[in-house]
């Protein structure tokens, strides 16, 4: 285990990814995590991430000196490097010239373990306005750049290493090499972590934790909650009850599809309860147009419905959540990142469900890793590679008010889009694609008559981890076919648009 201590920098999730890519298991924990807790986890190494603050300011994120005295190797990156210098008696101050972007760095100590197989000169990715002007006592300066005399420092006998640049960013030419050197040569990691062992270990851990307790899971039919539910079902079988709330904001026919897989006729050992709460949700959403308010209403109502079902079941010991890592980051609970959207699944917990503890078996996984876990669990491919679908469902793909009529429009348009993408054989190349109903009405002409109807927006993105995304290049003839089918087959739509925005600055969903 490697622990990544999060100081709120923008590349933190990339650090975790690079470690996983080296087949080393890692977890991200806040800088507020207690030292005792870190000791208990007994990591083979610790990585301190970048962060937006200045280490010498009073209220900045910091960590106590004892972290560096555990005998566990520590790698500080950017802010993490400055923090190491600051806490251990070096000097950090505003740099005369900040460095941003690709920067030439020169290795001064070729025999440093962190620079094994790294040439004397190479490009690194810098992003800093403070710098280490004086290395901490006992540390050796191991690299410099034109504007940064202490671009890297180390105290090899204590296994402490600091890099001012970001090796996790691909623009750092030998970044992966440096991270691998830290993991394999300095921490002694074997690099043998695999998804199959993660799955087996998770199931064992869950079984041990749950004992003969009762477990309750909110199943949405999406990839995350499905993988979490199957993992739980494999661990504790019929001690698990899954409640599936049909909030009327699912894709066309999806409620029935979920019931086929997880219901009594499906392959899994669990208790399945479907609640048809469509009207209730439409009632609460009537007249509401503000995106965050819609999200809150859907999230809260979901919890109320879920609670009512849970009350009928009575006391349970554990509650399962299908939270994955990007949810944690984007909701601002994983670190210092700003709240972009209040994700359904995170933060909002049922108050009145009588349970002891939460189980989040996927909390440390990225989306592509959740899918790999799903395959390991033997979940059918069509479910594992299903489109990710947000908790608030079509509610955030309908700009403006949500009601039954507008849900039907977006459901029908989306079904056509998905059908044509499947027919064209390009679905495997796309990360996520869907139709959204805009609140734009515009003039058209159909059969000699003037129309004044809605525009459907089509979106398709390529993405690895859903943190960044690019608009997909869908063949023109596919878009044409989808457009003409939607206009002809879906009432109240007279225009179809294709969204070319990447993330950032856009988000994948519209709200
Ligand atoms: P955004 O729109 O934030 O979406 O770029 C990133 C990914 O997250 C999904 N998403 C959600 N998933 N609850 C979820 O479980 C939510 O509230 C939620 N909002 C967005 C979105 O579909 C995309 O895959």
From TrEMBL:
One Pfam family, short name: GATase
E.C. code: 6.3.5.2
Associated pathway: Purine metabolism; GMP biosynthesis; GMP from XMP (L-Gln route): step 1/1
UniProt entry keywords in alphabetical sequence: ATP-binding, Glutamine amidotransferase, GMP biosynthesis, Ligase, Nucleotide-binding, Purine biosynthesis
InterPro entries with a match to the protein in the record: Class_I_gatase-like, GATASE, GMP_synth_C, GMP_synth_GATase, GMP_synthase, GMPS_ATP_PPase_dom, Rossmann-like_a/b/a_fold
Reactions performed catalytically: XMP + L-glutamine + ATP + H2O = GMP + L-glutamate + AMP + diphosphate + 2 H(+)
CDD domains linked to this entry: GATase1_GMP_Synthase, GMP_synthase_C
The keyword Glycosyltransferase is annotated on this UniProt entry: no
Record-level Gene Ontology MF annotations: GMP synthase (glutamine-hydrolyzing) activity
Active site per UniProt: 78, 166, 168
EC class (word): ligase
Chain ranges of the GMPS ATP-PPase domain: 193-386
Transmembrane segments: none
Coiled coil: none
Keyword tRNA-binding on entry: no
Positions contributing to ATP binding: 220-226
Signal peptide annotation: none
Function statement: Catalyzes the synthesis of GMP from XMP.
Subunit (UniProt): Homodimer.
Name listed for the protein in its UniProt record: GMP synthase [glutamine-hydrolyzing]
Provenance organism: Ohessyouella blattaphilus
Name of encoding gene: guaA
């Amino acid at each position: 285990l490697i622990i990544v201590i999060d100081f709120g920098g923008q590349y933190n999730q990339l650090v975790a990814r690079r470690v996983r890519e080296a087949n080393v298991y890692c977890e991200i924990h806040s800088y507020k995590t207690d030292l005792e807790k870190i000791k208990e986890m007994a990591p083979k190494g610790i990585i301190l991430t970048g962060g937006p603050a200045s280490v010498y300011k009073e209220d900045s994120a910091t960590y106590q000196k004892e972290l560096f005295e555990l005998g566990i190797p520590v790698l500080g990156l950017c802010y993490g490097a400055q923090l190491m210098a600051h806490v251990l008696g070096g000097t950090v101050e505003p740099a005369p010239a900040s460095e941003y972007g690709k920067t030439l760095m020169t290795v001064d100590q070729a025999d440093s373990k962190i620079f094994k197989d790294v040439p004397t000169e190479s490009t690194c990715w810098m992003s800093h306005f403070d710098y280490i002007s004086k290395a901490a006592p006992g540390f050796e300066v191991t690299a410099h750049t034109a504007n940064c005399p202490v671009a890297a420092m180390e105290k090899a006998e204590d296994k402490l290493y600091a890099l001012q640049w970001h090796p996790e960013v691909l623009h750092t030419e030998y970044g992966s090499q440096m991270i691998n050197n830290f993991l394999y040569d300095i921490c002694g990691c074997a690099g043998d972590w695999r998804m199959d062992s993660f799955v087996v270990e998770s199931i064992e851990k869950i079984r041990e934790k749950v004992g003969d307790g009762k477990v309750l899971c909110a199943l949405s039919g999406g990839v995350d909650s499905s993988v979490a539910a199957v993992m739980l079902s494999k661990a504790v079988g019929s001690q698990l009850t899954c409640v599936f709330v049909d909030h009327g904001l699912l894709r066309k026919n999806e409620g029935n599809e979920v019931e086929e897989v997880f219901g009594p006729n499906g392959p899994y050992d669990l208790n399945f309860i479907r609640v048809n709460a469509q009207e209730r949700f439409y009632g609460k959403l009537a007249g509401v147009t503000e995106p965050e308010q819609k999200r809150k209403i859907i999230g809260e109502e979901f919890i109320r419905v879920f609670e009512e079902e849970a009350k009928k079941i009575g006391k349970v010991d554990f509650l399962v959540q299908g939270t994955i890592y990007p949810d944690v980051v984007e909701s601002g609970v994983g670190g210092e990142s700003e709240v972009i959207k209040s994700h359904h699944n995170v933060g909002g917990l049922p108050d009145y469900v009588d349970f002891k503890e939460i189980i989040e078996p996927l909390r440390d996984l990225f989306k592509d890793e959740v899918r790999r876990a799903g395959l390991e669990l033997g979940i059918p491919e069509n479910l594992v590679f299903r489109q990710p679908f947000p908790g608030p469902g079509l509610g955030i793909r309908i700009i403006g008010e949500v009601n039954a009529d507008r849900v039907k429009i977006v459901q029908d348009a989306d079904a056509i889009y998905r059908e044509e993408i499947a027919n064209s054989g390009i679905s495997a190349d796309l990360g996520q694609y869907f139709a959204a109903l805009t609140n734009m009405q515009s003039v058209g002409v159909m059969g000699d008559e003037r129309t004044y109807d809605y525009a459907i927006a089509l979106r398709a993105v390529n993405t690895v981890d859903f943190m960044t995304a690019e608009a997909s290049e869908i063949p023109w003839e596919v878009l044409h076919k989808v457009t003409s089918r939607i206009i002809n087959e879906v009432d109240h739509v007279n225009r179809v648009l294709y969204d070319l925005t990447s993330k950032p600055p856009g988000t994948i969903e519209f709200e």
